[in-house]
UniProtKB/TrEMBL annotation:
Domain SHSP positions: 24-136
InterPro entries, per the entry: A-crystallin/Hsp20_dom, HSP20-like_chaperone, Small_HSP
Family: Belongs to the small heat shock protein (HSP20) family.
Transmembrane regions listed in the UniProt entry: none
Top-rank lineage group of the source organism: Bacteria
Protein name, entry field: Hsp20/alpha crystallin family protein
Length: 144
């Protein structure tokens, strides 16, 4: 139900992790995610530790889901000298092409413990259904 749009995105993510590059608005870093189906709902979970809910932006345009987030450095006061800085800062983004069978009008978003979870229900029209077969007695006779 989910389609990847960029086959080189994972390679970019690995290179950014190894180089320690921070994401910018023009070239954001990739955020890790999991996607799975749970009954009649698709669930997508994004790792965004240390990001406030105000810094997360979720958009859907047609079938393209875009999640952007920004982690800024913590406020430093005078007299504080950074000894080690390994946590990635900057802009993170992920775009996912959603299948037509998902109901993008009813997406639910929750954010807990640094994980953004989106729940996208499967559209009613895409769910399996039984088709009844009418018998001979159900047909009306037309006399000529």
């Amino acid at each position: 139900m989910l389609m990847r749009t960029d086959p080189f995105r994972e390679m970019d993510r690995i290179v950014q992790q190894l180089s320690g590059a921070s994401g910018t608005w023009s070239k954001p870093s990739v955020m890790p995610m999991d996607a799975y189906r749970q009954g009649d709902v698709y669930v997508i979970a994004f790792d965004l530790p240390g990001v406030s809910t105000e810094a997360i932006d979720i958009d859907v345009e047609r079938n393209m889901l875009t999640v952007k987030a920004e982690r800024r450095p913590t406020g430093k006061s005078d007299g504080v000298q950074m000894e080690l800085s390994e946590r990635p800062l900057g802009v993170f983004s992920r775009q996912i092409m959603l299948a037509d069978t998902l109901d993008t009008e009813r997406i639910e978003a929750d954010y807990d413990a640094g994980v953004l979870t989106l729940r996208i229900p499967i559209a009613e029209r895409a769910k399996p259904r039984k088709i009844t077969i009418g018998g001979e007695s159900d047909r009306k006779q037309i006399s000529a």
